[in-house]
Each structure stands twice: as C-alpha cells, then as structure tokens.
Design goal:
This protein is of the alpha/beta class. Strands 1-2-3-4 form a four-stranded mixed beta sheet, with helices on both faces. A three-stranded mixed beta sheet has the order 5-6-7.
Length: 169
C-alpha cells in the first residue's frame, strides 16, 4: 500500500523525522496513521491492497470515510467486503470508501450508496454561498438510512461541499 507516510514507518511503528513532521504539522492525523498501519498489516492476505494509494481518513459521528486514489475503491471492495469488515471490527465504526480526486457526482454517489441519487442541483444563495441539493430515492422505508448529518460533514471536510439532502418517492 502506498501512503503519505513511508513504508518503514507504517511497518515498524517508529516514525522517521519526515513522517513525524507530517504528523506534527497536521498533514497526517493519528487516525490516518492507525488506518494505514491496519491496511499494511493485511496486505499479504489481500494482495490487491499493495497497489492502493491511501490519502487519509475523515471521521464524522460514527462513520469513518477512507479516501483512496481514483480507481482504487474497487480493489478494497473486491474481497467480498472482508477488508471493510476487518476495519469495522478494529475501529468500531462504520466504514465508507471514497475516491479522493473524483468528480462531485461520483463522490456523492459513493457517499450515499446504496441509495440512488435522483438529481443534484446547485443552489446559489443571496449571501453568495452555494449549496448542493441532493435528492435521494427512498427505496425501502424499512432499510436503515445513512446518518445524513455525518454525510454532510464528510462532504464538507473532503470536498468543501455544503449539502442539502432531500428524499423523493
């Protein structure tokens, strides 16, 4: 696995001066370090993880969004969800895998999966701010809905998007 931190630091647990500086400056968080070390620890079991580029993590409520390079999301999801289950067991949080440098629509689709996005609109407000309105299809009332506030917070932290979420039948 590739990451902002060097392989030696991820495998050994001892940070070199460059990686320590990244941690102290806030470029990398302790949570990023923890998740990257977990992913490195299982890459022998799941060889596709060796090609994944890990950008970082974003946490909101009890949801942990793991940011990877475009095209790497399928590699993490490819083992029948075993990697996600492993991470959920270790962290005690719900895990979302999101592509870091992708367009806004793809990012929102991944964020709200398995719900279907019907439409995405931009709303320009009088104070000059722009909100993104996402209308989701409510498939099954019995299916548990994702934590909308956490999804808003993740979108704000990762892409700087202010979300307004609505549901349509």
């Amino acid at each position: 696995m590739k990451a902002e931190l060097c392989q030696f630091c991820l495998r050994s647990g001892i940070l070199c001066s460059k990686c320590r500086a990244k941690l102290e400056s806030g470029e990398v968080t302790k949570l990023d370090l923890e998740i990257a070390r977990l992913l490195v620890s299982i890459e022998n079991e799941y060889p596709l993880l060796q090609d994944v580029y890990f950008h970082g993590t974003v946490e909101a409520d009890n949801i942990l969004a793991i940011l990877v390079r475009r095209g790497d999301m399928s590699k993490i999801l490819s083992y029948g969800g075993k990697i996600i289950k492993f991470l959920e067991n270790k962290t005690g949080k719900d895990i979302r895998i999101l592509e870091y440098n992708t367009n806004e629509r793809k990012f929102l689709e991944d964020l709200f999966a398995p719900l279907t996005i019907l439409t995405i609109n931009k709303i320009w407000l009088p104070d000059g701010t722009v909100e993104t309105r996402v209308i989701l299809k409510r498939r099954d009332r019995k299916r548990s809905l994702p934590n909308i506030n956490a999804m808003r917070e993740i979108a704000k932290k990762v892409k700087g998007i202010i979300l307004r979420v609505e549901f349509a039948e």
